[in-house]
Automatic annotation (TrEMBL):
Major localization listed first in the record, in broad terms: membrane
Family: Belongs to the cation transport ATPase (P-type) (TC 3.A.3) family. Type IIA subfamily.
Pfam families the record matches: Cation_ATPase, Cation_ATPase_C, Cation_ATPase_N, E1-E2_ATPase, Hydrolase_3
Highest rank taxon of the organism: Bacteria
Keyword Transmembrane helix among record annotations: yes
Name recorded for this polypeptide: Cation-translocating P-type ATPase
Lineage of origin: Bacteria, Pseudomonadati, Thermodesulfobacteriota, Syntrophobacteria, Syntrophobacterales
Membrane topology: Multi-pass membrane protein
Length: 910
């Protein structure tokens, strides 16, 4: 290969020869060889942190460093066992942090691979779709409207092709491309026969040969000069990081004060130093950032399995707040398998049997089947549907599929039922020009060479096609289209639309040989007929809409279809419940203020353009709603960016829409949006469960130690008596609390999570119910543990036994808390004890370790434990289990208060 060529200054054949390629593309074997030679078509990434370095990163924590100092001091003063135990706990905590970060990083890497874009290329002479990273120099790429260019390439064909190169050149207007020579000294923006990686086709189509991939592209050269920008944390991560620092600062202050009091009451300085460090470690939720990261990452992976790829982590947080879902109809609420049902030609209606993309069915008039013959109006209409068409019908492993637009695919299927196949027809009538579809013109026209000269074929919205026609093809002849016939065609189109059919008009025009191809081609055409097709609703979409209603999320349909068609589908889905239906024209007549007043009551928008979506998003946002908006086209990008959650279609969506979106549906299914909302709520709830549990545990530990030191003499504790030694505090925090807390961060969603109203925008984790539960759990734990400690001392059990009983009571309280904190409202007995298998395993594991500490002789001394009797276990269990009724009563009060506030909210105070 020759590098550094001025590809734009070479003829196409010279480029192909230099790259050792051809117009039929590379062979699969050659492409594989070049992939190994040139490497993946990717920009170089920053070198990943090795697992070993990731593990060492865990020791940068300020508290871990202090613990390491404590290990050294303990060993130097002869407390070898204490030093070993603290060292083991440090390794355990660091290993847990490493595991969390490693899993989070790998989860995100897997997600990036899943979200990799694709490219259409010619391999072995056939068009196939491959991951963009597998594109190699010499590949022939096929470019369509909305595609993101996968690599730098020299154009071989360019049909009305315009490329948005703003990301590369800064030029705001799309650049019209050509396939002819450009002078060698032309600047980057003037190389009109070149397309570049990362830019986007906004109009037309093209074919190009790849000249550079990866870091050898223009974008690659720029990337090589730029420093990598650090990925920003999500708002939730920022908020929790700030919370963690606040807790850490406060906890360190409290621990220093308590240690000082301990020294003043006669304890040794070293003992109080290690004790204070242990208490500080107990107070600070040091695993919080890792838990947030892994909760988000694993949640995103779960969403991916439910067909929702998350492109921005902040979207996960926002999903739980969603109040409005504005969704397309076609392919999202419906099956995206358009099927031609009815055709109008020669003044009569023809029914078409068969469903989906199987080319099997009949043409029936008045109950009698027939086969269309050449020259018939129906035959001409079917030919028009084939020629004015950019979609292909394919049989892959016995299954019929389409590549392209479902509406166009249904026309190919209908034609195939008559024995007309696209390959045969297009060979007879090759395309020589086209005027692509646009949302403004609402039609598409292609020009073909035939034995009788040039003919333009057009399809589109019936009213637009009719307006372009002054003649009609009927019973094999062309004649003038009368006003009566025009009115009748309009009535038929309306009747077909009333039956929830999507209706297209078909027309053609014979062209003079020297006619310039422009929009005058679409005037004075010959009307052929109407085609009515239907895309049946998805059954799962009906259930998803019901689920949205329960969850307080309103679903709104936004479609380009006729109002009557949209209403029929919306009613069938249960989406239209007496609200307003608005067309694009009616929307245009509303001022921004008028739309804002009505927008919450509008359930269906019909015959709208992508520009209307932006107005709807803005109006809903001004009313304080959190909006998810779906889209698939290039023009949908502004609305997708403006929405709180932009949702692009993974199958039918353009690369432009996907780039603008926060989330991509890999199955284009509305139910997947609802599943993502459920996952988003679950992730937020799990982070809340983790924090509730851990902070409540930390509050309890600090209070029991503070109470003993500050108020010991007042409650009759002996001088120097402390309920827990440093090793016990560290064990409870890093072992007993650690795994159950992590298990809560992956807790299955609350069964009633989609019956709750959306979380208000901006609402944090620390709501009144959450704070009340944290405080209640912490205070009750303090009262119970201090009571057990004092009871043991009063019963003459001795300091070590009293500390052991307090330690075990504290550990068991945390076990019971972990089940209670699986919800801040629902009863633990309603939720059940066995739904979270990871929590059950964590408790089983921690219980085994606790029994080892209690009954293994060489562990009893450092942990201040002894072999408990059955009666001792009875006391400990009875004391610990009291946390459940206390938290259950607190939850009952929270539920009661919520109902009262709901009544006040609806009807005022009573």
């Amino acid at each position: 290969m020759i590098s550094g060529q001025n590809w734009h200054a070479l003829e196409v054949e010279d480029v192909l020869q230099t790259l050792e390629s051809s117009r039929n593309g590379l062979s699969t074997a050659e492409a594989q060889k070049r992939l190994e030679s040139f490497g993946p078509n990717e920009l170089a990434e920053k070198k990943r942190v090795s697992p070993w370095m990731l593990f060492l990163e865990q020791f940068k924590s300020f508290l871990i460093i202090i613990l390491l100092i404590a290990v050294v001091l303990s060993a130097a003063l002869g407390e070898v066992v204490d030093a070993i135990i603290i060292g083991i706990i440090i390794l355990f905590a660091s290993g847990l942090g490493f595991f969390q970060e490693y899993k989070a990083e790998r989860a995100m890497e897997a997600l990036k691979r899943m979200a990799a874009p694709t490219a259409s290329v010619l391999r072995d002479g056939k068009e196939i779709e491959v991951p963009a990273r597998e594109v190699v120099p010499g590949d022939i790429v096929i470019i369509a409207t909305g595609d993101r260019i996968p690599a730098d390439a020299r154009l071989i064909e360019a049909v009305n092709l315009r490329i948005d190169e703003a990301s590369l050149t800064g030029e705001s207007a799309p650049v019209e491309k050509i396939n002819t020579l450009v002078e060698a000294k032309a600047d980057l923006g003037d190389r009109l026969n070149m397309v570049y990686m990362g830019t986007t086709a906004v109009y037309g189509r093209g074919v190009a040969v790849v000249t550079g991939t990866g870091m050898a592209t223009e974008f690659g050269r720029i990337a090589g000069m730029l420093q990598e920008v650090k990925q920003e944390a999500t708002p939730l991560q920022v908020n929790l990081d700030r919370t963690g620092k606040w807790i850490a600062t406060g906890a360190l202050f409290v621990c220093v004060v308590l240690a000082g009091f301990g020294v003043a009451r006669g304890h040794e300085i070293l003992e109080m130093f290690i004790w204070g460090v242990a208490l500080a470690v107990a107070a600070v939720p040091e695993a919080l950032p890792a838990v947030v990261a892994i909760s988000l990452a694993l949640g995103v992976r779960r969403m991916a399995k439910r067909h929702a790829l998350i492109r921005r982590l902040s979207a996960v947080e926002t999903l739980g707040c969603t109040t409005f879902i504005c969704t397309d109809k076609t392919g999202t609420l419906t099956q995206n398998k358009m099927t031609v049902r009815r055709i109008y030609t020669d003044g009569k209606l023809t029914d078409v049997t068969g469903t989906g993309y199987e080319p099997e069915g009949e043409f029936v008039v008045d109950g009698i089947a027939f086969v269309p013959k050449e020259g018939d109006s129906l035959y001409v209409l079917l030919n028009t549907g084939i020629l004015c068409n950019d979609t292909s019908l394919n049989n892959i492993d016995g299954a019929w599929t389409i590549k392209g637009d479902p509406t166009e695919g249904s026309l190919l299927v209908a034609a195939a039922k008559a024995g007309l196949w696209k390959k045969d027809v297009t060979e007879r009538f090759p395309r020589i020009g086209e005027i692509p579809f646009s949302s403004e013109r609402k039609r598409m026209t292609t020009i073909h060479r035939t034995g009788d000269g040039k003919i333009a074929y057009s399809k589109g919205a019936p009213e637009e096609i009719l307006n372009a026609c002054d003649c009609i093809y009927i019973e094999g002849q062309e004649r003038e289209l009368t006003a009566t016939e025009r009115a009748n065609i309009q009535a038929i189109a309306q009747a077909m639309a009333d039956d929830a059919l999507r209706v297209l008009g078909m027309a053609y025009k014979r062209l003079p040989g020297d006619l310039e191809i422009d929009q005058t081609v679409e005037q004075e055409m010959v009307f052929v007929g109407l085609v009515g097709m239907i895309d049946p609703p998805r059954e799962e979409a009906k259930e998803a809409i019901k689920l949205c209603d329960q969850a307080g999320v309103k679903t709104v349909m936004i479609t380009g279809d006729y109002k009557i068609t949209a209403v029929a589908i919306a009613r069938d889905l249960g989406l239209l419940k007496g609200g307003l239906v608005l067309t694009g024209a009616e929307l245009d007549r509303l001022s921004h203020e008028e739309l804002e007043k009505q927008v919450e009551n509008i359930e269906v928008y019909a015959r709208v353009s992508p520009a209307h979506k932006l107005r709807v998003v803005e109006a809903l946002t001004k009313r304080g709603h959190v909006v998810a908006m779906t889209g698939d086209g290039v023009n949908d990008a502004p609305a997708l960016k403006k929405a709180d959650i932009g949702v692009a279609m993974g199958i039918t969506g353009t690369d432009v829409a996907k780039e603008a979106a926060d989330m991509i549906l890999t199955d284009d299914n509305f139910a997947s949006i609802v599943a993502a909302v459920e996952e988003g709520r679950g992730i937020f709830d799990n982070i809340k469960k983790y924090l509730m549990y851990l902070l409540s545990a930390n509050v309890g530990e600090i209070l029991v130690m503070a109470g003993a030191i500050l108020f010991g003499p007042l409650i009759g504790l002996p001088a120097g008596a402390i309920p827990l030694v440093a090793i016990q505090i560290l064990w409870v925090n890093l072992a007993t609390d650690g795994l159950p807390a992590i298990a809560l961060s992956v807790d299955p969603p609350d069964p009633g999570i989609m019956t709750q109203k959306p979380r208000p925008r901006g609402q944090g984790i620390f709501t009144r119910p959450v704070v009340l539960l944290i405080a209640t759990g912490g205070i009750w734990s303090f009262l119970v543990n201090l009571s057990v400690f004092k009871w043991a001392l009063d019963a003459g059990r001795g300091m070590i036994e009293a500390q052991a009983l307090c330690f075990l009571t504290l550990a068991l309280i945390e076990f019971f808390k972990s089940y209670a904190f699986r919800s801040d409202k629902r009863s633990v007995f309603t939720l059940g004890f066995f739904r979270n298998k990871w929590l059950n395993l964590a408790i089983m594991w921690e219980t085994m370790l606790l029994l080892l500490i209690v009954y293994v002789p060489f562990l009893q001394q450092p942990f201040h434990t002894f072999s408990l009797s059955i009666s001792d276990w009875g006391v400990v269990l009875l004391a610990a289990v009291t946390i459940l009724p206390v938290l259950e009563v607190t939850k009952a009060l929270i539920r009661w208060r919520g109902k009262c506030e709901g009544v006040v909210g609806k009807g005022g105070a009573r």
